[in-house]
Structure of Ribosomal peptide maturation radical SAM protein 1:
Amino acid sequence: MTICLAAMPWQSLDCPSLPIGLLKAVTVATGRPEPLTYHGGIRWAEYLLDATDGELGPPEYTEVAEEGLFHGLGDWVFAGVLHDDDSFGVTQLRRYADERGLDIDRVTRMRAHAADFVEVAAREILATEPTLIGFTTTFMQNAPSLATARRIKELDPRVPIVFGGGNCDGAMGSALHENFPFVDYVVRGEGEIAFPALLDALDGRTDLAAVPGLSWRDAQGRHDNRQGTLVPPALMPVPDYDDWFLLIAESPVGEYVEPKLVLESARGCWWGEKHHCTFCGLNGTGMQFRAKAPETVIAELTSLVRRHQTLDAIMVDNIIDNRYFRDLLPSVAALDWDLRIHYEVKSNLRPDEIAVLRQAGVTHVQPGIESLVSPVLKLMDKGVTGVRNVRTLRDCEAAALTVSWNWLYGFPTESTTDYDAVLRQLPALVHLQPPASAARILLERFSPYFENPLLGFPNRQPAKLYEHVYALGQDRLTDMVYLFDTDPAGLSDADAEGLHKLIEVWIDAYPSSSLQILRADDEEIVIEDRRVGWPDQDHRITGAGFVAAYRELENGRTAKALAARVAEWGLTADQVVDWLGKLAGDGLVFTEQGHWITLATPTEPLKVS
Ligand code: SF4
């Protein structure tokens, strides 16, 4: 059997496809020949470069890949080819873009080349003479993958086509199989067990009915096998990226990217197992947390770094295993390599954990901060407060640890009153890393809000973006898509305007803002204030009692708890309250729901644009 595995646009150009790397490895482990691979994202970027004399290329590809998801822009580029209709979705996207002030010039120019590219891709894949073609599809890979699969079937109907990946999890995979008859098989759920089982069935060793999570057809019609049990860590192989690194080294796209490794040390979410964040559908049907043994992770990391001479690594885990702070990261630090690792973490990081991350070469974290408003964080079931999140932002800033986060709003029962006190204080936070944006939550499949309409989103329909991607009625779309439109909850758009404006100011001010402790001893702390929007000045905390109080406040305290802790210095509760008010007036503290936290960083900030 000659297998060709394809990852179509909009796979990131700077890293290989993890699903393809994993499926290659599990296929080889069955004793079969190594699958061939088709890195359609790189080929599309090359094609654009060539066809437009460099006017469109990797930078434009990356903009669509990173910014187009919540508007379906990448899918739309290929939607005309998918439906064999040049005009499909054009009017719908124009209307959609007008309503939202979206610039669609770039994707419109790309779309003019989509049909020719799909023709090339289909023929290049068939030129490998495959006896099975697999497409992995996540986020905006559906339309380009389906368009290419459709054309392959026209050119050679004999070659079976299988789809898998995040877009095929649960009901979405069954619906995709039903809606697109040229897709012969869909593997729903994780692939390490199901894909080799499919190969066995296609080899005649077992029955298709025995393949976990497989959607398939026979003379009786369509069948959806039950999804199997989740893959245990011991069966998650080391991904094979050899061909991708060879390809990117030779491709003109290579000049535009810094290749990165993609690893996973765990699947699922230990927090979500107990407190599923109400808006989050990220884990699909695989919430159960499964972490690899620390020695396995370090062996994979070192072997891939050595093999590909690449020190940048993205860990795709949805949340880091807390054991790793003790059992993995110190071993990574001991390598003493100049690694640059990206990890997703829980937002209540302690300073000692941040230090361990930095020592191990973790330079970028995604802590799921989501908001600084405690009542809203409670609605999310995030298990943190606004003050705790501000502390994480402060401590990551101090440790030169890049933080990516978004501000989410639109939660049922949230009100402007919840936000007022926090929004008034945002100008004091401009020296800390801002959110990339503020956005109303969309209803995600698999999330508690999706699963339980009583939580506040009783009315839902497939998100409007799918109208310019699929020529399917709502009844056929409902089971296939991930995002849903609902009646807006929580803040109105007008209410959210203030939040958006404050965040724009924050983003602009951050690169040239700092608030840092210049000097500190037992009698005085000097804080240099160079925040945009605040007068340049040095604040002095003087006297042993107030210095001790400031140190206590760095951990976050209520006024009452703080007063109790500094009573030995002779400070009364009233004096503490007055002093907190003065700090608040100077923007040196953040306070919410009776808790207070200091804002100055203890070190000179390192701002990276
Ligand atoms: S938002 Fe993060 S912490 Fe919450 S359930 Fe999803 S993956 Fe887990």
Q: What stands out?
A: The chain has a mean pLDDT of 97. The CA atoms of residues 47 and 263 lie 28 Å apart.
